[in-house]
Write a structure and sequence with these properties.
By secondary structure, the chain is an alpha+beta fold. The chain has one domain: 2-Layer Sandwich (Pantoate--beta-alanine Ligase, Chain: A,domain 2). Helices cover about 40% and strands about 35% of the residues. The chain contains 1 helix and 5 strands. Strands 1, 2, 3, 4 and 5 form a 5-stranded antiparallel sheet that branches. The mean pLDDT is about 85.
């Protein structure tokens, strides 16, 4: 009987292993790209939230009287608007809308209404 035990790796096995590794590396690169885009979206949205909170704080402190404006944040320009409604005597409901352009879409963040004891 002949000893038919193989030694070494066949070329076909190497090609299959390279194809599997290539697919894995491609999937990993796409995941990294997706996470980088998501990170930018989260940062932009967080900036919009902080801007709305800042505007609300400045309005409550009496430092800000404008009802709209623009602020630069990073590479984007954020537009904001303040809408005040009288909820009842001595109370007012303040909504702050922050919007920005993202690729070809207009994005918005509306801050939760704030009830203040004195009108803004």
């Amino acid at each position: 009987m002949k000893n038919t035990r193989r030694r070494g790796i066949v070329l076909m096995e190497i090609l299959i292993a390279l194809a599997v590794m290539g697919v894995g590396i491609l999937a990993l690169m796409q995941a990294i790209s997706f996470l980088a885009r998501q990170d930018e979206n989260v940062r932009t949205h967080a900036y919009a939230v902080l801007l709305a909170e800042n505007i609300l704080s400045r309005r409550l402190a009496g430092e800000l009287t404008e009802s709209q404006g623009e602020e630069a944040g990073g590479e984007k320009t954020f537009s904001w608007q303040v809408a005040v409604e009288n909820a009842s005597e001595g109370l007012s409901l303040t909504n702050i809308t922050v919007s920005w352009q993202e690729k070809r879409q207009q994005r918005k963040y509306v801050a939760a209404g704030c009830v203040a004891l004195n009108s803004l």
